[in-house]
Design goal:
Elements: H1 15-25, H2 35-47, H3 51-64, H4 70-80, H5 84-101, H6 105-114, H7 119-126, E1 146-147, E2 157-164, E3 167-179, E4 191-202, E5 207-214, E6 233-235, E7 239-241
Antiparallel strand pairs: 1-6, 2-3, 2-7, 3-4, 4-5, 5-6
Helix pairs in contact: 1-2, 2-3, 2-4, 4-5
Length: about 280
């Protein structure tokens, strides 16, 4: 029986990229892929909805990211990816890399300008940060701690739990001011810093003044990466970021929360809530 052949027209891609794409589909490994090759294959995998290859390329690009090639990656994300959400995700990965390795917003902006990126691309990257917590990887519902060199700015929305007897009340509020003070070198975690203070603006218009504390340096208690492992993290304790305004508590502003606290530790408790 005569074989039936079908011809398909492949548009908006390069022959080399499509050939590499087919090789990967058939299990080829150890391919010598450049950044642009990875992006073209990623775009093809996204177009043809082949999630394993898509995920593999995203991870490969992240692993290849350095200060030296970040501009190339950002340019490629805006050039080769036709799916806006995917392109923004790759640009956000650029922002996460810079935030993990540089820290401050001013340093990130200076780096992007020094790399001679187009102003429109710089704005697009910066705009991908969460407007509330100011991080590329949103910290919604995570403990609202901050490194001592980057205090929480006024207006950041948080939830703060206050213990009253056997119950804990959750308050919706925002940061009004943060007053820093010298941290004694031998100060233990979860201890107050003399002269340090956080003022919270409550939803009823009143303010609450709370002492600033040095928090644990356990990496799993925070969001930081290894470059910040020796930095002091601060907070008032018992406070989480409120970036997405999810109603994580039932009732009139609070619910009963199970606590397991020592005499001098009011920064940890178990909140019973359903997440999306």
């Amino acid at each position: 029986m005569k074989a039936i052949k079908h011809n398909f027209e492949i548009k908006k891609t390069k022959i080399k990229a499509f050939e590499l794409f087919i090789q990967i589909i058939y299990g080829a490994g150890n391919l010598d892929l450049g950044i642009k090759d990875m992006f073209e294959i990623l775009d093809l995998a996204d177009f043809y909805i082949i999630e394993p290859i898509k995920g593999k390329m995203i991870e490969a690009i992240k692993n290849e990211m350095t200060f030296e090639n970040l501009k190339t990656i950002a340019d490629a994300a805006s050039t080769y990816i036709h799916h806006e959400e995917l392109a923004n995700g790759m640009l956000k990965n650029c922002g996460k890399f810079l935030q993990s390795n540089l820290g401050s917003s001013d340093q990130i902006l200076d780096f992007l300008k020094d790399e001679l990126m187009e102003p429109e691309l710089i704005d697009k990257i910066i705009d991908l940060k969460c407007e509330n917590c100011d991080y590329f990887k949103c910290k919604d519902s995570m403990l609202a701690t901050f490194p001592e060199h980057k205090p929480l700015r006024p207006g950041v929305k948080v939830k703060k739990w206050i213990r009253t007897g056997d119950e804990t009340q959750m308050l919706e509020c925002s940061i009004s001011t943060v007053s820093l003070a010298p941290i004694p070198p031998n100060l233990r975690p979860n201890k107050q810093i003399d002269g340090g203070e956080i003022v919270l603006a409550l939803s009823d218009g009143s303010e609450m003044r709370l002492p600033l504390k040095k928090m644990s340096n356990n990496e799993f208690d925070h969001w930081y990466s290894s470059p910040l492992s020796r930095v002091n993290f601060l907070s008032t304790g018992g406070m989480i970021f409120r970036c997405k305004d999810k109603d994580i508590l039932s009732g009139a502003g609070y619910r009963r929360i199970t606590t397991n606290l020592g005499d001098d530790r009011d920064s940890d408790c178990n909140i019973d809530y359903d997440s999306d």
